[in-house]
Amino acid sequence: MTPWIKPAVAQFDRDLVRAAAAVIHLCRGHAGVDGTILRDPSTGAAVEMKGGCNGVNVTLLLCAALLAFPASWTLKAKGLLIGCVAIQSVNLVRFISLFYLLQYSQAWFDFAHAYLWESLIMLDALAVFCVWVQVAFPAAGMPDAHT
User: Fold this and answer.
1) CA-derived radius of gyration, the chain
2) Domain spans of the chain, in order of start
């Protein structure tokens, strides 16, 4: 990551952790926040939002695909907005689930963190892109070559 973008991503990581704690509190759960760490106050179990876990890489991949696709800027903007919200929503669920999985079983946490959620977050981006293409170009799934 370039030095000028690191502070923005670090702030984004802290915001994601605060959002996860807010969702947990909304559902009557308990979680404390310390920067990029989400901790269960009763057990001390904690997960940390680290680089690569914030969904930024997958979001950038989706943005590149949407921007490279031959479509109007209006359609691209809608796809970018909906896609970014979709990926970050799934990523928030991922982070919260990992928080609870760690409290239940280290083995389940390791499996979900390394394999399950890595695949699901990429599938989310692929699904968003496929749906966007079908919505943007419903007749043939591709833009007209003359537009």
Assistant:
1) 18
2) 6-136
